[in-house]
Amino acid sequence: MSGFVRTLRLWFAPEEVRREGATPDYRFSLANERTFLAWLRTALALIGGGFAVDQFLPDLRWGWRVGLALALLAAGALCALRAVNHWVRCERAMRRGEDLPESRFPALLSVVVAVVALVMVVVVLVGWEG
Amino acid sequence: MSGPAAGAPARDPGLQPERTRLAWRRTTLSTTVVAVLAAKAALAGGGTVAGVVACAVCCACWLVFLRIAHRRIRDLAAAVAPGAPVPGYAGGAVLCTVVMAVCGAALVWQG
């Protein structure tokens, strides 16, 4: 739990990440920042998808519509939190000269997106639109 | 690869600061899309108090994100070898995104 709190503080505390290790080539830091922003855009796209499901599929049954929209919004929030966590971990690993952290999150997100897409196909084909 | 002309400031041939600036711009644009969708959801919800409040919070998040991106872009332009962003920027940007998602959930639930 203390490790989690420490990481949480790193998300917002400017100086703590820089306290350890050596400053890497600034281009690596910028590449890490762009990766973080790309993940943040993915999160925003999921949130936008949640809004879109709610707004542009009015014929869908209430349960399906709200459930799908909330799932997409939750995935977006999770993706954003993971983005900053991964960014801090990568930055720290670069400063310490360690290997970059490995992550199962991309695979997990791919599977979730694929499942949501398949469910949508089934919902539209079978015609459960109320 | 020819070096920069004598006297000119050293310029990264990979244009890393420019690419990072454009990445911030793209992300700001994505935030704008979400804010517009939130406004549409609030309008479609019939203008209830909860809907208007959620929409206002989304718009405030959009403004904060705009400010964070603007400050980061200014820092990138000012430094010759800009370092990692102050983590407060990253944390703030993510906080805005998460609050937008929560407001979206409120809008979807009550709409």
UniProtKB/TrEMBL annotation, chain A:
Record keywords, A-Z: Cell membrane, Membrane, Transmembrane, Transmembrane helix
Broad class of the protein's primary localization: membrane
TM segment ranges: 36-56, 62-84, 105-128
Domain DUF202, residue spans: 27-93
Membrane topology: Multi-pass membrane protein
Subcellular location(s) per record: Cell membrane
Protein name: DUF202 domain-containing protein
Organism expressing this protein natively: Streptomyces virens
Record lineage: Bacteria, Bacillati, Actinomycetota, Actinomycetes, Kitasatosporales
From TrEMBL, chain B:
Cellular component terms per the entry's GO annotation: endomembrane system
Keywords from the named record: Membrane, Transmembrane, Transmembrane helix
Superkingdom field: Bacteria
Keyword Transmembrane helix recorded: yes
Cellular location(s): Endomembrane system
Protein's membrane topology: Multi-pass membrane protein
Membrane-spanning residues: 41-65, 86-109
Residues in coiled coil: none
Protein name, UniProt field: Uncharacterized membrane protein YidH (DUF202 family)
Domain DUF202, first and last residues per copy: 12-75
